[in-house]
Structures are given as C-alpha cells and as structure tokens.
Amino acid sequence: xxxxxxxxxxxxxxxxQQRVPLTRANLTAARLSMIQATPAEVGxxxxxxxxxxxxxxxxxxxLYRNGDGEALPVVLYAHGGGWVMGGVDTHDGLCRHxxxxxxxxxxxxxxxxxxxxxxxxxxxxxxxxxxWLRGPEAPRHGLDPARIAVAGDSSGGHLAAVTARRARDxxxxxxxxxxxxxxxxxxxxxxxxxxxxxxxxxxRFFWDAFAPPGVDRTxxxxxxxxxxxxxxxxxxVITAELDxxxxxxxxxxxxxxxxxVPVTAVRYQGLIHNFPRKLALFDAAHVALxxxxxxxxxxxxxxx
Length: 304
Prior knowledge:
Blueprint: H1 8-13, H2 27-41, E1 50-55, E2 60-65, E3 72-78, H3 92-102, E4 105-109, H4 121-133, H5 137-140, E5 143-153, H6 155-169, E6 176-180, H7 200-210, E7 235-240, H8 246-258, E8 263-268, H9 283-300
Parallel strand pairs: 3-4, 3-5, 5-6, 6-7, 7-8
Antiparallel strand pairs: 1-2, 2-4
C-alpha cells in the first residue's frame, strides 16, 4: 500500500468493521458484522417527519418522507452488500440523509438476498417496487407516481442500473438514476487494489452467489455494459479512486455519455469503496450526499 494515496479517514475506516472471510459457511457471521458496524460507520441520521414500513407490491420496504406537499417525488433505493448482505437497517442513516437533504421521498427496498434468492429475484423485487410506485397506492402515501428516480450503492447500484434499463424498455420515463460505487461488470477483471477494503475474492464470491456458474452473465440484466444504453435517464455516477469497482463504474458512465445520455461522473481521490454510506467516518460522504441531493432538487424542477 502506498500511504500517500490513502485518505487518513479511509485508513481509520478500514479498521471499523470486523472482517469475516466470505464463504457460504460464514455468511451469517458476515451479515452480522455489517449490521454491527453500522452504528459506527453510518450513525443514526437526521430525524424524519414520516417513516413508514410498506408492502411495495409484495416487497417489504421503508418509506422516508421529509418534504412538504402531498405528492413528493420519490427515489427507489437499492442497498449495497454484494447482493448477499445489508438491508433497510444498514442503510437507514443514508436514506434519512438523502430524504432530509433533497426533499424527495425515499423508498428503501428490502429485496431478497442471494445465495438463498439469486438472480433474478433481487431485480424482480426492484421492478415490483417500481410498479407499485406507479400504481394507485403511491398517491395514498403522498408520492408522485410521475416523478421517480432510481438509486443504489455498490451491488444496489447494479440493481438500480438494471431497473432503469427495464423501465426504459417498458416505456417508463424515470427522472434519473444515481449510482454510487456501482457494481457493473460481471467479467470481474479487477485491478490489484485488495488492500483498500473490498477485494477481488470477495467480489467473485458475490457474483457467484448472485449469478451462479451456469447463468449467462452476458445478458444485459447482469452486464449493463452490453445493453443498448440509448434513451436511459440522466445519470450521476460516483466512484472512489481506491475502489476496485471504480473503473467499471466509469466505463458505464462513458458508455452512457456515448449513447447521448446526460451524465455526471465524479471520482473522489484517496477514498475507498462505498465511502458515501459511511457518514459517521468520512467528511466526503456528506459532500457526496449533498451532490446527490442537489441533483435530485434539480430533477424535481423538470417537467415529468
């Protein structure tokens, strides 16, 4: 490790979560380690005017409403955790911050996890939640079904990107997509950045759990880089310099731009995978969330 490349807060952050070797036998312990580290990494987040557990088309979800008005625009949020860990509780602080700073409602989806529920289950859950947001229940919860964005971090960024493409294919116009340190490329050709937290063997475990050997990983639902990207909504991609996923996220941003999609791509120097979630540890996490909130406020001013 070159100490000069690593932000001091990143060095400290890598010591917070207990590292559990990722195997199927250890998965319960790995899931628990993420949950146990959440208070120190994320914090509680701000108070929210309304927090409700909802059934979003058969998918459990948590709805955050902090803005005024009876028809708020809403972010459909997919949490990270390699498709195998995490949930609405591990991402509660992040969703609170996003709702408080943007004025948008946030629907955080507790999608089914792999390997118990591999592809396409997590994708299908996101699509079902999107269908619910566009149906008659949304206005009853104070949501505007015509103004929906999708967002996600890490593996949740992958789910958000796939959901955005599926929405386009179905003729649904989304306000935009926010992709934070997203997983994009199942080819798993990663740079040698293992010493900065997320490592190559962990990513291979995640992919094998989500799309087991024998599944065609070249299909657009698994490899967004192989999809037709024309007509996708405005996109923000946030990456971190010392994240082994940064290159694929930036390739996806470049592909979107080449397809004529409005894209903003920002790389944070010296930082590590999924720093924006760790609001209790990184000053830059608050900057990144402020960027996302500013984009959402701008999108809310556009015609649906």
